[in-house]
Amino acid sequence: MSKKERQSFEEALSRLEEIVNELEDESISLEDTIRLYEEGIKLSKKCTETLEQAELRIEKVNEQHADNEDL
């Protein structure tokens, strides 16, 4: 497994923030802009998937908790 695959949500989000800051630099080359944009899209997708998985886990816990209260 590569480092990017093992990257935590917080690390991915931090890198995404770095990319945004780098892209705001008007002196950046077009090639670097495209490379950073591509990396940012991948990180954004990873963060979104992680958040969606967390939301599903929370919903499951809440459902289980609600079921236990009914007993």
From TrEMBL:
Keywords from the UniProt entry: Coiled coil, Cytoplasm, Exonuclease, Hydrolase, Nuclease
GO cellular component: cytosol; exodeoxyribonuclease VII complex
Any one of the GO BP annotations: DNA catabolic process
Gene3D superfamilies assigned: Exonuclease VII, small subunit
Enzyme class: hydrolase
Primary localization class, coarse: cytoplasm
Compartments (UniProt record): Cytoplasm
Coiled coil: 6-71
Enzyme Commission identifier(s): 3.1.11.6
MF term (GO), any: exodeoxyribonuclease VII activity
One Pfam family, short name: Exonuc_VII_S
InterPro entries for the chain: Exonuc_VII_S (IPR003761), Exonuc_VII_ssu_sf (IPR037004)
Catalytic reaction(s) noted: Exonucleolytic cleavage in either 5'- to 3'- or 3'- to 5'-direction to yield nucleoside 5'-phosphates
Quaternary assembly: Heterooligomer composed of large and small subunits.
Similarity comment: Belongs to the XseB family.
Function according to Swiss-Prot or TrEMBL: Bidirectionally degrades single-stranded DNA into large acid-insoluble oligonucleotides, which are then degraded further into small acid-soluble oligonucleotides.
UniProt protein name: Exodeoxyribonuclease 7 small subunit
Name of the coding gene: xseB
